[in-house]
Amino acid sequence: MKVGILTGGGDCPGLNPAIRGFVMKALDYGFAVYGIREGWKGLVNDLVDKEPLTIADVEELIDKGGTVLRSSRTNPYKDPAQLQAVKTTIQKHGFEAIVALGGEDTLGVASKLYKEGINTVGVPKTMDNDLSETDYTFGFDSAVQVNVEALDRLRDTARSHSRVIVLEVMGRHAGWVALYTGVAGGADYILLPEVPLNVEELCTQVQRAYARKGYALVVASEGVELPEEEHKETKVDAFGHVVLGERNVGEWVAKEIEKRTGLETRSAVTGHIQRGGAPSAFDRVLASRLGVRAAQCVYERDFGKMVALHGNDIVVAPLEAAVGTLRTVPKALYDSLVPLFNK
């Protein structure tokens, strides 16, 4: 069987171990696995490797961040010509299956292609941890570790200078990264997209924390809705998502705290630092297991599916269900953790 594999959307730790796991298992089945460069753009522009991937190509990838296949945020469904180019490239190379490693957008394309008769399998990758049908996505744990280290370092500075510091982390519609970072890093307040921003409550909590220990730490997800944006024009990407990097949530929150409390407040943004670097041990193992299971799906011709983690088991779920609804932080979970960061 001839199979194409691609990575789409933002890179994150775990993509390379997942590629490695898939190729190693696929070789056991006798598949010829071809790398498709730059995500769906690679099928639009026929950026397909001339030779299949070998053990030598992948065995050293276990500790490597990013993706050796490169990536893009191309959405072929925005342009009928691009969509036709994708289908033409698949037919030209005789691919019997396309394995896509990505988040909501990348796997959304895979789901649509499957409905049009193209055999696809999805592997869940996203730092945001917001895909349905899986308990965790690889990239999330590594990102949280980076952010917790950043928060630990910011605590030293905040304490030394008697300041309030706001750390802005990634998370478009789901606040998993912010919640885990804030709880693990001992933040005094956490702002999530799922919880409406209450500036008065935020400032009250900051003042309480500052009165106790002489500093305060706030973690804010980049997807938090700001009151001033209600009628503001926003820039969107190829999938129609607001470009969050230009919103400066952390800076806005810091200025608001300083204005309302009179406390010296600074902001920091980990940004793309969250995406790079070696994957955590958890992400290496999870990505490897998902890659192996994806190869099994192809072997069993179980297409239109996404491999997923349920408890400690790797299972499969329909792609359509996985991308149909975002997995956001449940209010009950947030409420149960409030005592840890709101005293």
From TrEMBL:
This is Pyrophosphate--fructose 6-phosphate 1-phosphotransferase. InterPro entries: ATP_PFK, ATP_PFK_prok-type, Phosphofructokinase_CS, Phosphofructokinase_dom, Phosphofructokinase_III, PKF_sf. It comes from the Bacteria. Its cofactor is Mg(2+). It is found in: Cytoplasm. Residues 2-297 form the Phosphofructokinase domain. Homodimer or homotetramer. The keyword NAD does not apply. GO terms for biological process: canonical glycolysis; fructose 1,6-bisphosphate metabolic process; fructose 6-phosphate metabolic process. It catalyses: beta-D-fructose 6-phosphate + diphosphate = beta-D-fructose 1,6-bisphosphate + phosphate + H(+). Non-allosteric. Gene3D superfamilies: 3.40.50.450, Phosphofructokinase domain. The record marks D105 as: Important for catalytic activity and substrate specificity. Belongs to the phosphofructokinase type A (PFKA) family. Mixed-substrate PFK group III subfamily. Mg(2+) binds at E104. Catalyzes the phosphorylation of D-fructose 6-phosphate, the first committing step of glycolysis. Uses inorganic phosphate (PPi) as phosphoryl donor instead of ATP like common ATP-dependent phosphofructokinases (ATP-PFKs), which renders the reaction reversible, and can thus function both in glycolysis and gluconeogenesis. Consistently, PPi-PFK can replace the enzymes of both the forward (ATP-PFK) and reverse (fructose-bisphosphatase (FBPase)) reactions. Substrate binds at T126, M127, D128, R163, M170, G171, R172, E222, R266, H272, I273, Q274, R275. The record marks K125 as: Important for catalytic activity. Pathway: Carbohydrate degradation; glycolysis; D-glyceraldehyde 3-phosphate and glycerone phosphate from D-glucose: step 3/4. GO terms for molecular function: 6-phosphofructokinase activity; AMP binding; ATP binding; diphosphate-fructose-6-phosphate 1-phosphotransferase activity; fructose-6-phosphate binding; identical protein binding; metal ion binding; monosaccharide binding. Its EC number is 2.7.1.90. The active site is at D128. Keywords: Cytoplasm, Glycolysis, Kinase, Magnesium, Metal-binding, Transferase. Diphosphate binds at G10.
